[in-house]
Amino acid sequence: MTDELPFTIDDVHAAAGVIAGQVERTPMSRSQTLSEITGADVRIKFENMQFTASFKERGALNRLTNLTDAEKSAGVIAMSAGNHAQGVAYHGRRLSIPVTIVMPKTTPFTKVKQTRDHGARVILEGDTLSEATEHAFMLRDREGYTFIHPYDDPLIAAGQGTVGLEMMEAMPELDTIVVPVGGGGLIAGVAMAAKAMKPDISVVGVEAAMYPSMYAAFHGQEMKAGGATIAEGIAVKTPGAVGMAVARNLVDEVVLAEEEHLERAITLLADVEKTVVEGAGAAGLAALLAHPARFSGRRVGLILCGGNIDLRLLASVLTRALVRENRLANIRIIGDDKPGLLAEVSQIIGEAGANIIEVAHNRIALDVPAKGAEFDILIETRDRQHTNEVIEVLTAAGYPPRPLA
Question: Where is the domain boundary, 285, 301, 320?
């Protein structure tokens, strides 16, 4: 049915020729530890190792290269608050094509700076992506720019499909590929490439549960999309026509991942693979964590599609993981307000092998005796069992702690 689709496998091969030597052929390797954790045979494609830390470079370069000389001279415009902006800006500068990027006013400063550093003119307009898009269209019509869509363009999708070509060439034994889904450009290209090379391979999309747009379309449902997902790179309310046309023909299934699974996936990739990914980049692994039975025993290819995560957000995710695993625990101890009390408690905690991170001392709480004192102590331990051991030791010493949320 590919003759009815917006692009073909020949377009993907053509894109591979265009980007060869200009975009990284990122490594792919098997993860022994993640395979043991998930029950699947996990193979990882490290697209977060691109120069701009995202697969978006592939489609952007393919689209820019296919412009006419007149279009290149006039310049291009795109709307993006993230990876697409950097991909277009970086390769636009390399090809001497003037680039204008419209971003919402709420875009984090670091993303604005990174895009400007790649040589693009950045315009901050509107409070939402929709308002920024409208302004980009207005400038396109007024200035004669060519609009470079982030996903709803056959040349963009064909460029993204080179990820699938490389995965199948590196590991033809794959029987399943899990692809993060936002607008649908990546899954359209990967499905086109993978199915052409191995028709019986299973291509599975994964969306953040807050933005189940393609999932809803596959199941004939109307589902509400919205919310502050950690996977903002795939937080798209309506998939593009190009992506949907290919997905309906070549994608086997779409699954959802909750925020907890996305957070855990980011943490596991940092801890096990020593690699940094954004929420969207962790979505493939999140799918395996959310639906272990679906992927158990399968040779699964995952695409770490992006690594541009805000450092504060990454720190928050990693800290929350420590709390979730009970490696950070907040306990409250009430005792007599006497000299040496805190030193004694600290010694007990230290001898138990735990580390004190923070102490808050409260003498005036009304639920504490007038001659008493209250300590909120944040401790770091090896794991949940170790935390329980510390609590038992404190209790035996006469300082029974009360765990705090």
Answer: 320
Q: According to DSSP H, which parts of 55-175 are helical?
A: 56-65, 69-74, 83-94, 109-117, 129-143, 154-160, 162-170
SS3 163: helix
Q: Is residue 136 part of a domain?
A: yes
Q: What are φ and ψ of residue 110, in 5° steps?
A: -60, -40
First to last CA, the chain: 55
Q: What pLDDT, on a 0 to 100 scale, did the predictor assign at position 363?
A: 57
Domain assignment of residue 221, given as a range: 2-55+154-320
Does the pLDDT of residue 405 top 90, yes or no? no
Last residue of a domain, one of 320, 335, 359: 320
- Residue pointed to by tokens 């970086």: 90
Q: Classify strands 146-147 and 76-79 as parallel, antiparallel or unpaired.
A: parallel
Which CATH number fits the domain that encloses residue 98?
Answer: 3.40.50.1100
Query: Same domain, yes or no, for 170 and 189?
Result: yes
Identity of the amino acid at 13: H
Distances in whole angstroms, Cα of residue 121 to Cα of each of 78, 80, 91, 173, 334 = 11, 13, 14, 44, 59
In a domain, 68, yes or no: no
Contact 127, 106 (CB under 8 A): yes
CATH number, domain at 370?
A: 3.30.70.260
Q: What pLDDT does 2 receive? A: 45
Pairing of strands 28-30, 41-45: antiparallel
Is the predicted pLDDT of residue 7 greater than 80, yes or no? yes
**What does the longest C-alpha to C-alpha distance in the chain come to?**
83
213: nearest Cα among 226, 230, 229, 232: 226
pTM across the whole model: 0.89
Q: What percent of the chain lies above the pLDDT cut of 70?
A: 96
